[in-house]
Design goal:
The complex is a heterodimer of chains A (about 200) and B (about 110). Chain A is mostly helical and about 200 residues long. Chain A is built from eight helices and five strands. The relative contact order of chain B is 0.18. The chains are: A mainly alpha (about 200), B mainly alpha (about 110).
């Protein structure tokens, strides 16, 4: 199969898994046809293990960029593609053809941009405290955020809450010795007065 | 001087049983010695020496109370537990608290090292 496209589809990195066979096919395509990468989302399988494997192979880095021969694809289009593709119950080639056709026939390309290199190997959102984002809307949100600016995400500000006051802070025991001694002296004074 | 102000004359923080006993025994020895001197020398009533003796006793009492308060802090108890010593039977519980019971692991009064 001749293929010169690099398609990145779906929200696989956020928990939707790839099957092992599928990953093998993708790797094979990648090597044989110099396809930069190809991810087509599938909603069955095991875990996001393969996504991380791809990440280790430097494939996942650009997955989030959704490049099409170095051209940025509107993140919304990714979802559209994804929806179209995982309704197809075919082999990998037909899926790829469908994807390619869909890409070529539609106005998915929003603007030309150089391939994004974030300059760091592990984008922050991977280890975001939200954990695995499981729904599509979150994915769109994340991808929109990622695909449009080329800046590194700002570090999140952690709101500092005032420390709860403890007994120690109050130090209310400061006057205990004085009160104690005062009581004793008062006692002696009363005794002295009473004779 | 700061040692005295922080260790002896302050109610902040906590002390361990050993420190408490050290302070108490030192105070007992000091007060006992002064009392013996007072008895032997036959100081007259209303003299300056008697005034000094009273002042010394008050200082010793202050140090003792501070030590007890810090020891109570070590037991995660407030210093006002000290007033238990005015109650005839319960005062023994204060002695047990300060002198015999172990420090609690987490006390709100404990200052960070």
């Amino acid at each position: 199969m001749n293929c010169d496209v690099a398609v990145s589809i779906g929200d696989s990195i956020f928990g939707v898994p790839f099957s092992e066979d599928f990953v093998k096919e993708v790797k094979k395509l990648n090597e044989e046809h110099s396809v930069p990468y190809l991810f087509v989302q599938r909603r069955n399988g095991n875990l996001m293990y393969y996504a991380w494997s791809f990440y280790d192979n430097k494939l996942l880095r650009n997955h989030i960029c959704a490049c099409f021969n170095g051209v940025m694809i509107n993140p919304d289009a990714i979802i559209g593609l994804s929806d179209a593709i995982y309704s197809i119950e075919g082999n990998i080639n037909s899926t790829l053809q469908q994807a390619e056709e869909l890409l070529r026939s539609s106005d998915l390309v929003c603007e030309e941009l150089p391939p994004i290199d974030y300059g760091y190997s592990k984008p922050d959102f991977f280890c975001d405290s939200l954990g695995i984002v499981k729904n599509i809307s979150s994915y769109v949100k994340y991808n929109s955020r990622i695909a449009i600016p080329l800046k590194k995400p700002k570090p999140r500000l952690v709101k500092e809450f005032p420390r709860k006051e403890t007994k120690k802070d109050k130090n209310s025991d400061r006057f205990v010795p004085l009160i104690y001694i005062g009581i004793i002296m008062l006692f002696f004074l009363v005794c002295a007065l009473l004779g | 001087m700061s040692l005295f102000s922080t260790k002896l004359f302050s109610t902040k923080g906590c002390i361990k049983r050993r420190e408490w006993w050290t302070i108490v025994l030192c105070l007992l020895m000091c007060c006992g010695s002064i009392n013996i001197i007072y008895d032997i020398s036959g100081i007259d009533k209303y003299s300056i020496m008697q005034l000094l003796f009273i002042i010394t006793c008050i200082i010793a009492l202050y140090i003792y109370i501070c030590a007890c308060v810090k020891r109570l802090h070590d037991r995660d108890k407030g210093g006002y537990w000290m007033f238990l010593s005015f109650v005839p039977i319960l005062r023994w519980w204060l002695l047990i608290e300060c002198g015999f019971l172990r420090s609690v692991e987490e006390s709100v009064y404990r200052e960070e090292e």
